[in-house]
Amino acid sequence: MDVTVNRFLKIVLSIMFLLAIGWVVVELSSILIIFIIGALLAYILDPITSFLEYKGLSRTSATAVIFLCLALLLFIFIYFIVPPIIDQIKVIQHNLGSGKSTETINRIEEFIRKNLPMLKDVNLDLQNKLNTAVNHFSNSIFSLVGSVISIITTLVIIPFVVFFLLKDGRALIKSMVSIIPNRYFEITLNLIYKTDKQIGGYLRGQFFDALIIGFLSVVALWALNVPYFLLIGAFAGLANMVPYIGPLTGAVIAILVVTITNGAVNQMLMVAGAFALIQLLDNVLVQPIVVARSVQMHPLLVIFAVIAGGQFFGVIGMFLAVPAAAILKVFVLEIYYLYKKVNFA
Amino acid sequence: MHEDSLWTNIFRLKSGEKEDILTVLKRIPLFQDLTRKELRQLERILHQRSYKKDEVIFSEGEPGVGMYIIETGQVRITLGDEQKVLAVLSKGDFFGEMALLLEAPRTASAIANKPSRLYGFFQPDLFSILETYPRTGNKILLRLSQMIAERLRHSNLENRELRNKLNSLLKKED
Questions:
Q1: In the predicted model, is pLDDT for residue B4 greater than 70?
Q2: Strand partners of residue B120
Q3: Which of B51, B64, B124 sits opposite A182 (nearest CB)?
Q4: Is A42 exposed, middle or buried (0-12, 13-18, 19+ CB in 10 A)?
Q5: Rounded to an integer, what distance in angstroms lies between the CA atom of residue B46 and that of residue A222?
Q6: By C-alpha distance, which of B76, B89, B78 is closest to B147?
Q7: ipTM reported for the complex, 2 dp
Q8: A186–B51: do the CB atoms touch at under 8 Å?
Q9: Domain B6-173 adopts which CATH fold?
Q10: Torsion of CA A131, A137, A143, A146, to 10 degrees
């Protein structure tokens, strides 16, 4: 009798505890996101710190060196890249309102009506839809950049988190592991190591791959004289971090922008060709060198994870879907292995 | 100068603790070739664990990730369900080193004979120390290889002795 009551109490307390944790996580989600981004950056930069340590620097000096380099990059980014990007967004907004693009959009609508008879009577209203989409997109970017408080908190907290996690991350993990009961100690370590093995190479690879693809896209679009090349190139790089869907989205947006601005068919083809070439280069050259990309998951599972991530957490969910699925996979496999061992040993 | 502040006490205690760990590590045969600086690098990756009497450290068949070194106490290594004792190890001894080198399930169980304090040293950390501080990593690996070679030599001698005994028994029967 007592045992049943005790067990019931334990279950109720555990559920209450989990609910409390869930509530705290939801309430603090905006701050947690900043910490998660900081932790991801620290995780991505960790091998560089270890390399500098190997070269003879202490962990603190290695972290400081990386921070100096990052500060320099951030300075270059804020002074040279952010202003043209903001200008380009403003130009897009302005152009959409002007007559030139309205004419092009009308042409596209006409083309669609002619070739897709089933849409004949449907009011496509592309102009308005596009205007709303671009306004929404640019407004959200401006509101993100514009909110002074959030930008200061983010700019201060993220580097702070990255610095301390880079410097003390291992000690932090070690002290967290030290409070785990002996019974679960080895299995926890095993899980940490396996997860690190699964997602470490993937995340770092994706990050550097995105940088390279972004750079190549900017250069290609600039060479092809595509307007807003910085914005589209940066977007293509970022989008590349989402498997399968990302690379396609970058190319589609670039072609769409060309269509809206001047509608030149040969330029559209050139842009499509450039993106195909970049993807080819990425697959043949960049990925094999930079990316230990394999998280050993079936492509269908990857696509499902990406869509599910997008459904639950939007764009950030899509970026983090694959590593999250990989972590889940490690946990499920290890627990299954343990269960099998306990039940069939 | 008024010295009795909370902070001075905390720092004194901390540095005292660190001294202790390094001295203890230096006494362990596996790490005796390491300098103080190298021991400090090593200390960052070792996991210190305490076990009660008869507490299981690891069980046969479980996936293992590394080895344990006994700082204080006593550990028995057992085999099978009947828990046949293969060896009783004490201060300075290490066990589970196969998992440090091979990714294979544990071949025996380890149980604390007395309240014990152990250091866990795991494969990924060995790899990381080999990458970050190759000199320290190599010293540890070399010492580990020497100790395993010594155990192998010992096993070979025992094996030969047993073979000889078996042969003479067979000859007697003939």
A1: no
A2: B47, B68
A3: B51
A4: buried
A5: 52
A6: B89
A7: 0.72
A8: no
A9: Jelly Rolls (2.60.120)
A10: -90
CB proximity list for B107: less than 8 A, separation 6 or greater: B60, B98
Q: Which residues of A touch B122 (CB under 8 A)?
A: 189, 193
Q: In chain B, where are the structural domains located?
A: 6-173
> What are the chain A neighbours of B47 within 8 Å (beta carbons)?
174, 177-178, 185, 189
pLDDT in tens, A283-309: 777 777 665 555 667 778 778 888 888
Provide the sign of the torsion angle of the four alpha carbons B14, B135, A191, B95, taken in this order: negative
* E-assigned strand segments in B8-140: 47-51, 56-58, 66-72, 74-79, 84-90, 94-95, 109-112, 116-122
Percent of chain A with pLDDT over 70: 77
On whether the CB atoms of residues B96 and B110 are closer than 8 A, the answer is yes
pLDDT tens, residue order, chain A (345 aa) = 566 778 888 888 989 999 998 888 888 777 777 888 888 888 888 888 888 888 888 888 999 998 888 888 888 877 877 777 777 777 766 766 665 566 666 666 666 666 666 555 555 566 666 667 666 665 655 555 555 566 677 777 888 888 888 888 888 888 888 888 988 888 888 888 888 877 787 788 888 888 888 888 888 888 887 777 777 888 888 888 887 777 788 888 888 877 777 667 788 888 888 888 888 888 777 777 665 555 667 778 778 888 888 888 777 778 788 888 888 888 888 778 777 765 654
pLDDT of residue B80: 84
DSSP state of A285: I
Burial class (CB in 10 A: 0-12, 13-18, 19+), A162: buried
- CA A79 to chain centroid: 24
Rounded Cα distance between A11 and A15, Å, is 6
Find, among A304, A254, A324, A273, the residue nearest to A40 by Cα. A324
Q: What's the rounded Cα separation, in Å, for the pair A93 and A135?
A: 7
Tell me whether B54 touches chain A (CB under 8 Å): no
A128-135 — which CB contacts under 8 Å span 24+ positions?
A130/A96, A130/A105, A130/A260, A131/A96, A131/A97, A134/A92, A134/A93, A134/A96, A135/A93
The torsion of the CA quartet A89, A92, A96, A99, rounded to 10 degrees, works out to 140
B61 touches chain A (CB under 8 A): yes
CA A213 to CA A233: how far, in whole Å? 8
Mean pLDDT of B26-51: 87
- DSSP assignment of B78-93, as one string? EETTTTEEEEEEETT-
